Amino acid sequence: MRILFAAHDPGGARALLPVMACARERGHQTILFSSGPASAIWRKEGEATLDADSEAGFLDAFLDDAKPDAALTGTSMHSDFERHLWPVLKARRIPALAVLDAWINLKLRFEDSTGQASQPDVIGVIDEGMAEKALAEPWLSATVRVLGQPHLESVAKRLSALRTNARRNEARPFIAFFSETVAQDHPGERSPGFDQYSTLAALLPALAAVAPCRLVVQPHPREDRAEVAAFLESLPAPEGVAVELSGMETERLLVAADAVIGMTTMVLVEAALSDIPGLSLQLNRKRQHNPAVDAIGGVTVVTREDGIPVALRALLHADGKSERPMPSFEGSAACIVDAVEALAP
Predict the structure, then answer these.
(1) Phi and psi, residue 140, nearest 5°
(2) Residue 320 lies in a domain
(3) Residue 93 domain-assigned?
(4) Are residues 162 and 221 in the same domain?
């Protein structure tokens, strides 16, 4: 088979990487087509990808040349890249499967910037709970299949191996905070009740409870690093608390960290699957934004500011292992390739 891989957002790009390898192991040809962050992520991994071009006729000419038997795409919140690609594929009778990399913002991934709905032939969801929610949506017409999450599978395996001989920084715990673009993506009435700025402002003074310690803040890829740095400089840090902006990649930061703090980022799920203690700060939250963070073992959710110091002390004494059963995504890449093979005529 000739399989077209297409993505724009980072989550979709990373979820598809292990699937490419699996498809090639089975003898399939892979053709990569991307836009935005996905292009940089794939190239960094040594993948040759063609960037999308807005020139009239470009997509038709590309598909005429590529002649894919089926397409495997990500889903994007911040671009219409995949949403505009699916109807073109459908018109050419090229079956398409879209892989969901997260549990959140389902409808936003299938509605373009004008409000027009767009769907592939099949939507691959992470687990049965997500399948139930998707099937209950009246707007959804695509077939829904539970296919797992290959990126989480590969990250958990890699991090667990890299952290095998990791030693705690007992004298000065190393805490990683992973920021998100909550203020930008959910302004005004759409706010969940917190954002990255209010969360950091509440976290810093609470760190006095576990001083001395080191807090390394990792901005989201869509955040302005200079803006985050300026905000951190405006916040007084308690005595014994060293605060700095991260210069590491996410994986290196997770390998080094004694504990991870975030809001509703999927990095908290990655950390939990790798036995790294995690804390989700969702202060004054109005609704549950990412149910996976609440449900997964190894992550403590705090919704009140006065609960942060106690949670921090517990966080730094946790071993990351949870009594709750952890989800397994074993074989996700193979399941997705199976599903694509079943699509081909």
Answers:
(1) -85, 125
(2) no
(3) yes
(4) yes
Strand 174-178 to strand 143-146: parallel, antiparallel, or no bridges (unpaired)?
unpaired
Give yes or no: residues 172 and 31 share one domain. Answer: no
Entry field: residues in the chain = 345
Q: Which residues contact 244 (CB under 8 A, 6 or more apart)?
A: 214, 215, 216, 217
Q: Please, are residues 76 and 37 in contact by the beta-carbon 8 Å criterion? A: no
Amino acid at position 298, single letter: G
Instruction: Name the residue type at position 107.
Output: K
Report the CATH number that the domain containing residue 76 is assigned in CATH: 3.40.50.2000
Q: Distance between the two ends of the chain, CA-based, in angstroms?
A: 10
Q: How far apart are CA 240 and CA 69, in angstroms?
A: 59
Q: Is 203 helix (H, G, I), strand (E, B) or coil?
A: helix
Per-residue model confidence as pLDDT tens digits over 132-164:
989 998 888 999 999 999 998 888 888 878 887
Q: What is the pLDDT of residues 3-46, one digit of tens each?
A: 999 999 999 999 999 999 999 999 999 999 999 999 999 999 99
Strands, sheet with 50-51, edge to edge from the N-terminal-most edge strand: 50-51, 29-34, 2-7, 70-73, 96-99, 122-125, 143-146
Residue 11: helix, strand or coil by DSSP?
A: helix
Query: What number of other Cβ atoms are within 10 A of residue 160's Cβ?
Result: 13
Provide the pLDDT confidence category of residue 322 given band limits of 50, 70 and 90: low
For residues 37, 40, 43, 47, the Cα torsion angle rounded to the nearest 10 degrees is: 0
Name the token pair of 96: 């398409």
Which residues, in sequence order, are CB contacts of 91 under 8 Å at separation 6+?
none
* Sheet-wide strand order for 213-218: 241-245, 213-218, 174-178, 259-262, 278-281, 299-302
Q: Do residues 121 and 26 both lie within one domain?
A: yes
Residue 75 to residue 314: CA distance in whole angstroms: 37
Look at residues 273, 313, 291 and name the one whose alpha carbon lies nearest to residue 127.
291
Query: Residue 168: which domain range?
Result: 154-315
Q: Is the dihedral of CA 64, 65, 68, 73 positive or negative?
A: negative
In the predicted structure, residue 190 carries a pLDDT above the cut 80: yes
CA 178/CA 262 separation, integer angstroms: 5
Contact criterion met (CB below 8 Å) for 260 and 254: yes
